[in-house]
Automatic annotation (TrEMBL):
InterPro entries, A to Z: Nuc-triphosphatase_THEP1, P-loop_NTPase
Family: Belongs to the THEP1 NTPase family.
Catalytic class of the enzyme: hydrolase
Signal sequence segment: none
UniProt KW Nucleotide-binding keyword: yes
HAMAP family: NTPase_1
Binding residue positions for ATP: G7, P8, P9, G10, I11, G12, K13, T14
Protein's UniProt name: Nucleoside-triphosphatase BK009_00250
Length: 174
């Protein structure tokens, strides 16, 4: 089973993912995967980090300060850090973790075709995947992931976000 969390920007998708991570770890399970938190400078978002959950290794997913890489909005994406941190974290999680967390499957990460191939392999594996996925994107890979028969999609709203954590934990049998 694969669980996807979606919803509008700023609704709390990553917050829910971190709460799930804590609850799973509290039960003694190993977790791997990646997070992509915002980088803020003087109160303004200037990019996104990419962090390996297991090792803590950190890089730049995308930034307004990057001088090379494909553009997504006003950010240039670091394909090297997606490869060396993001993809590595997912491959490592397949080998060593009980659960794989992905924050997130979205246009920036998908600038790397290796990333989408790795995400698909992880979702095909025996590992339980819990991923944040872009809500409105029509990217073919995002649509393909959302249409998998082995996914449960939880769409966060202001009205349901307090109940979604409990529903996901129930779905995981935890």
């Amino acid at each position: 089973m694969n669980i996807l969390i979606t919803g509008p920007p700023g609704i709390g998708k990553t917050t829910i993912l971190k709460q799930i991570e804590r609850k799973i770890q509290d039960q003694g399970h190993a977790i791997g995967g990646m997070y992509c938190p915002e980088i803020r400078e003087n109160g303004r978002r200037t990019g996104f980090n990419i962090i390996d959950i297991a090792s803590g290794q950190k890089g730049i997913l995308a930034s307004i300060h990057n001088t090379t890489g494909p553009m997504v909005g006003r950010y240039k994406v670091s394909l090297n850090d997606i490869q060396e941190i993001g993809i590595y974290s997912l491959e490592n999680a397949m080998e060593t973790s009980d659960y794989v967390l992905i924050d997130e499957i979205a246009p920036m990460e998908l600038k790397s075709s290796n990333f989408s191939q790795t995400v698909w392999r992880v979702m095909e594996s025996e590992k339980l995947v819990i991923a944040v996925i872009h809500q409105r994107s029509n990217h073919p890979f995002i649509l393909k992931v959302k249409s998998r028969k082995d996914v449960m999609i939880f769409c966060l709203t202001r009205e349901n976000r307090d109940n979604v954590l409990e529903n996901i934990m129930e779905s995981l049998g935890l």
